[in-house]
């Protein structure tokens, strides 16, 4: 490929999350020229037919076929086995370089760092991942899911906020504005109504995580103590990762709690004790960066 050809290339980055997929088409300068969205690409949970339909939907929204593509997929913990990549993409992304790895990989690619780097993610769930160089394996801490881990996540904040609200109501914990806020948020006339609301049928973990935005924004000593505690717990998970990486490792942050909750982000950074900043570009653009690498 000569120099002039390279400047006419476009690169497709895809972020296949657990519930939805986003995509960007970028030029050789990394500028976004088109965006797309569809359902999940998690073929291990949904099957190839459903995942392939979502991938086709992404391609149908683009102005033209890309020169290369890279998929970050929540179904994966490392690089995709060749047979799985083929099963997902054949007949859809034929004739171009295509790669697929975990969604953590594209978050690290978004840092655009050639040396050691780490990313801490705090959304509905939480996880930390890092590597010493782009060609080296990814190592991680956290990521045990909402039943076994997800410390410092939206679920953790929401769950602790719910428990504090009820303990404050019955007097087994300090009085807190969270009690009234929980009732308002979930449509309960009184706290006793929450039993039926939460158990018939049982609330999903993302519905509990949704309450995190109330916990993190409330000017209440109990709520803010939860923010501080959860942020510090995630910082401990991040420190465990950083101990396995060089001292000069760059740290990036991603996820709704870091992007939209300044008090949470500040509490995390204070507990971590090393510089960390929200990613300059989102992981989906990191996938486009990875697609560019395929052409090098």
Strand/helix succession: HEEEHHEHEHEEEHHHHHHHEHHEH
Low-pLDDT runs of 5+ residues are none
Measured by DSSP, the beta-strand proportion falls in 15-25%
Characterize the main sheet. Answer: 5 strands, mixed
Distance between the termini: 9 Å
How does the helix and strand content classify structurally?
A: alpha/beta
Q: Give the tally of β-strands.
A: 10
Radius of gyration: 21 Å
Placed side by side, the strands forming the largest sheet appear as 3-2-1-4-5
Average pLDDT, to the nearest integer? 92
State the helical fraction: 40-55%
How many helix segments? 15
What overall geometry do the principal axes of the alpha carbons give? Answer: globular
What does this structure look like?
It is a single chain. Helix 5 packs across helix 15 and helix 7 packs across helix 8. The mean pLDDT is 92. The strands form two sheets. A five-stranded mixed beta sheet has the order 3-2-1-4-5. The chain is built from 15 helices and ten strands. A hairpin with a 3-residue loop joins strand 1 and strand 2. 46% of the residues lie in helices and 19% in strands. The protein has helices spanning 3-8, 43-46, 48-60, 82-89, 103-109, 145-148, 154-170, 178-186, 194-199, 205-209, 212-217, 221-242, 256-260, 262-272, 283-295; strands spanning 10-16, 20-27, 32-39, 68-73, 98-102, 117-122, 126-131, 139-142, 250-254, 277-278. The protein has 296 residues and is α/β, with parallel strands linked by helices.
Any key phrases for this structure?
alpha/beta, 46% helix, 296 residues, five-stranded mixed β-sheet
Topology:
Layout: H1 3-8, E1 10-16, E2 20-27, E3 32-39, H2 43-46, H3 48-60, E4 68-73, H4 82-89, E5 98-102, H5 103-109, E6 117-122, E7 126-131, E8 139-142, H6 145-148, H7 154-170, H8 178-186, H9 194-199, H10 205-209, H11 212-217, H12 221-242, E9 250-254, H13 256-260, H14 262-272, E10 277-278, H15 283-295
Parallel strand pairs: 1-4, 4-5, 6-9, 9-10
Antiparallel strand pairs: 1-2, 2-3, 6-7, 7-8
